[in-house]
Structures are given as C-alpha cells and as structure tokens.
From TrEMBL:
Name of this protein: Zn-dependent hydrolase
Keyword tags: Hydrolase, Metal-binding, Zinc
Gene Ontology terms for molecular function: hydrolase activity, acting on carbon-nitrogen (but not peptide) bonds, in linear amidines; metal ion binding
Native species: Aliidiomarina minuta
Cofactor binding notes: Binds 2 Zn(2+) ions per subunit.
UniProt cross-references to CDD domains, sorted A to Z: M20_bAS
Highest taxon, organism lineage: Bacteria
Binding site for Zn(2+) 2: 91, 126, 382
Binding residues for Zn(2+) 1: 80, 91, 189
Keyword Mitochondrion assigned: no
Species lineage: Bacteria, Pseudomonadati, Pseudomonadota, Gammaproteobacteria, Alteromonadales
InterPro entries: Amidase_Cbmase, Bact_exopeptidase_dim_dom, Peptidase_M20
Reported cofactor(s): Zn(2+)
Length: 411
C-alpha cells in the first residue's frame, strides 16, 4: 500500500497560500480571473513542468498536468484554484495539490499506468461570474449566450475579465472533452460544514450535491433627505431589503426542506450616504436544495414575496438570474469504491450530501464521478480561519490515492 508524503503536500499547499494572501485580514483573494488567480495558475504550471509532468492551460483558464499520453480514456482528479474574497487556504486548492501529490507518488514509485492520469485546477468555480465555469467548459455545458452575458456583482463582464488576462473568451467554447475520453473523475474537498468534526469521523463520502440558484436583485425607490422626508412618504429601498430578509425563515418553513438554504450575501445601497434615504438596494440571493422541484418553488415564492414587498414600499423590483445549477448525484460505483478503500484503511466514514456546489457535479453528467470530504474545524469555510487538521488532510489524500490507483489500472 502506497502513501502520500504529507510534509511535501503541506509545503506545496502553504506555498500556494502565499498567492493572494492579505496581511490585514489573513484571507485569500484569488477571485476568478483576477491577477492573483492567474498568478496561481502560472505558478502551478511552472511547478508541474519542473517536476516532469505534462502541463498546459486550456482556453477557459483550466490548468492541466499529468502522466501518460491521452490515447485512452483519462482518469481525472480535479478541484479549483480560485477563492472567495477573504477565503481560506484549503477550499479548492487542497484537491488540486492532493492531485499533484498523487502524481508525485506514482512518479516516485515508478508505478505503471494502464490509463492516463490528469489533474485539473479549474477556473472560476467560486461564483464571481456564476460559478463552475471551468467544469462547465470541460464537460461541454457552456453556451454562447451565457458566456457573453455573464458578469459579476460589480458589473464586470466575464469576457472582459478574461481578455484582461490575455485569454480569448471564445476559446472556452472549444475545450470540452468528449465523454469517451474521460474514464473517471475524483475530487477531494473540505466539508465546509460541522458534521464530520462533530461526529469525529475523518472521511465523508458524498452521495449528492445540492442545486444552487443565484439572483442579482435591484429594489429601486427614491433617494431623499433623511431629515425632511416623512417616514410614511418614503420609497426606502433598504426597508424593502430588510422586509425580505425577515421573510426568509417563513419561505423555508412553508416551501423548503431541512436541506434548504437561502442567503442574502452581498448588499449595496445607493447613494450610500448617512443623511440620504437609500434610493436603490442591490443584493444577491442564493438558494439551495437537493431537489430541483423545490428549488423552483423557492424561486417562485421569493419572486412573489419581493413583488409584494416592492408594492408595499413603492419600489420597483428587478432581478437577474446569474446562475441555475440543478442538484447532482455521485456515481454509485464510485461511492462503493471509496467506502471499500476507507474500510481497507480501517477508517470510519460517513455517506453524506453536500450543501455546497463543487466541480464534480458537472462531471456526474458525463462520467463516473465521486467526491471525498475531510472535516473542517468548527465547520468554518469561506473565511480566513478556515482550517482542516493535517492528519485529516493525510487521510483524505491517501484515500484519493488508493481510489485513483484502482482506476488507472486495467479493470
């Protein structure tokens, strides 16, 4: 039985964490197609090439490296390199660097592969422009209309962000892998929740990924003087936002499940002056559930609720659907493989759903795909204090190694 080199994996991950690190809040800032995001991609390309692996970047900004010629279907390990603003060092990056470590173990031990092996660091997974961009490009899910219209919450178009980094956005439509070229897809990720740590279980084996929709909402009223405008005569956009926030619990109780999540994550008030009644509120709504039918119900109720609130406060309600990602389910055979390999190591595991979206969900539509979780300390993620213990990292990477070795050999 082979094992990963934990000090080497740790050193590489910590080196990557210096790119986009903010000294003030200790958070990571590698949002998709920013300078630091691209710096990390080129850093990884250089490292992979120096270590003797085949490496390149495709037209969508996905970084690829691995072993073996692509004359047979490839086993792929993947996760993302970008982060949310003020994110942690493990989310996404762990899966990519663990994939690099799997390749190093294979190279160090001169393990002969019957199938080619590739690791991919996907582009723009975290949702600056809607999310999962790299995975969608690889699996053939991109379309021209979305590519040309996608923009972030600040109004920057995806196409412009790509051009700023020397990429031709149209090239992203040409990078899809035919289904018969992909044998399996594996992803290792931190849980981003408290379940595994609370239950003291080192391995999570994911059976399904929650669907996600993201809206950019505008409530437009009338800016007015905060001292002279009577309270009952205002068209206060913030009051509309506040009323909607108070409705979220009711919407979930009446139309959701125990797996439903609705979040107002980013808010901007205009004109944004202390002595002026806000004339416009711009905010995001992100909804999640394991059932697409329930997602549709939630979206419909959110729409009706916002329309009602807008009328009550004399506001105009507009919304843009930035993304709609349906739920996906991992492949039974991959789940069973992961469970068997964990049993072989003598490690407890939990079969569980993922409330967060991951690159793997797009690969479930085109190949056998599986997702491994390791615990997050206190369930924290998307924050500077995101952390996973190194002994859990070691177990997760070794389970990934065991499963990949099973698949790169002849069936």
């Amino acid at each position: 039985m082979y094992n990963i080199d934990l000090p080497r994996l740790k050193s590489t991950l910590l080196e990557l964490s210096q790119i986009g690190f903010n000294e003030e809040d200790h958070g990571m800032y590698r949002q998709g197609f920013t300078d630091d995001d691209m710096k990390a991609r080129h850093w990884l390309l250089d490292m992979a090439r120096k270590e003797g692996f085949i490496a390149d970047m495709d037209g969508a900004g996905n970084v690829w490296f691995g072993l073996g010629e692509l004359d047979k279907p490839a086993v792929i390990i993947g996760s993302h390199l970008d982060t949310v603003p003020a994110g942690g060092i493990f989310d996404g990056a762990l899966g990519v660097i663990a994939g690099l470590e799997v390749l190093r173990v294979i190279k160090d031990n001169n393990i002969q592969l019957d199938f080619p092996l590739r690791v991919v660091g996907t582009a723009e997974e975290e949702g600056r422009f809607g999310g999962m961009f790299g995975a969608q490009s690889i699996t053939g899910k991109l379309n021209m209309d979305w590519l040309l219209s996608a923009r972030d919450a600040d109004g920057m178009y995806l196409t412009d962000a790509m051009k700023n980094q020397g990429l031709n956005p149209m090239d992203a439509l040409e990078v899809a892998w035919p289904q018969d070229r992909i044998k399996n897809f594996f992803e290792l990720h931190i849980e981003q929740g408290p379940v595994l740590e609370k239950m003291d279980i080192p391995i999570g084996i994911v059976d399904g990924i929650s669907g996600v929709f993201k809206w950019i909402v505008h409530l437009k009223g009338k800016a007015d003087h905060a001292g002279t405008a009577p309270m009952d005569m205002r068209s206060d956009a913030f009051m509309g936002l506040a009323d909607f926030a108070h409705e979220i619990t009711r919407i979930i109780d009446e139309n959701g499940t125990d797996k439903t999540r609705i979040t107002v994550g980013k808010v901007q008030l205009k004109p944004g002056y202390p002595h002026t009644v806000p004339g416009e509120a711009i905010f995001t709504i992100v909804g999640r559930d394991m059932s697409e039918d329930i997602m549709r119900d939630l979206a419909d109720v959110c729409d009706k609720t916002l329309n009602s609130i807008a009328r009550r406060h004399r506001l105009r309600f507009e919304r843009e659907e930035a993304s709609w990602l349906p739920p996906h389910y991992c492949t039974d055979s991959m789940i069973e493989l992961m469970e068997q390999k964990a049993q072989d190591r003598g490690w407890p595991f939990l079969r569980m759903p993922s409330g967060a979206g991951h690159d793997v969900q797009f690969f479930t539509e085109v190949t056998e795909a599986g997702l491994i979780f390791i615990p997050s300390v206190n369930g924290v993620s998307h924050a500077p204090d995101e952390w996973s213990h190194w002994h859990h990292v070691e177990k997760g990477a070794n389970l990934l190694l065991d499963c990949v070795l099973d698949k790169v050999s002849k069936d």
